Amino acid sequence: MNPWLIGFLAWLVPGLGHLMQGRVLRGIVSAVTILLMFVLGVSIGGHIYGLRETGEGLLSSLFGLCDMGAGALYLFSKFTGLAVNERPEQATAEYGSVFLMVAGLLNLILALDAFDIRAGRKA
């Protein structure tokens, strides 16, 4: 299978790229980790940023790129309105936003890892 397709699918569904290549434990651990980070971030009041937000200037767009790394979780939250509205009244809201960003960045790293494995750059 094409490494680009593996990378795209790994980005879209956390852990899928490794599962498709027979690395079951890595795929399951990464999928569960990203899902738990995302759910925890939403549950403690995290905010999903978009690319066109201007609340915090250029940082909002950068935060949006981080959030987009979560793939289908990001798309699901944007289309359903989950965690789209900020909840500054919650003391943990900023921590939740950071959890969401880190989940996206971790998913991007794992998608690149799946791509590299398929491309033969990594054993």
Could you walk me through the main structural features you see in this protein, from its secondary elements to its overall organization?
The protein is 67% helix and 0% strand. The protein is built from six helices and no strands. The chain has helices at residues 3-12, 16-20, 24-43, 58-68, 72-80, 93-119. Helix 3 (24-43) packs antiparallel against helix 6 and helix 4 packs across helix 6 (93-119). The mean pLDDT is 89.
Helix-strand layout with pairing:
Layout: H1 3-12, H2 16-20, H3 24-43, H4 58-68, H5 72-80, H6 93-119
Helix pairs in contact: 1-6, 3-6, 4-6
Short summary of the structure?
The chain is an all-alpha fold and 123 residues long. 67% of the residues lie in helices and 0% in strands.
Mean pLDDT: 89
Helix content: 55-70%
Number of individual domains: 1
Radius of gyration over C-alpha positions, nearest whole angstrom: 15 Å
Ends distance: 16 Å
Sum up the structure in keywords.
123 residues; mainly alpha; elongated
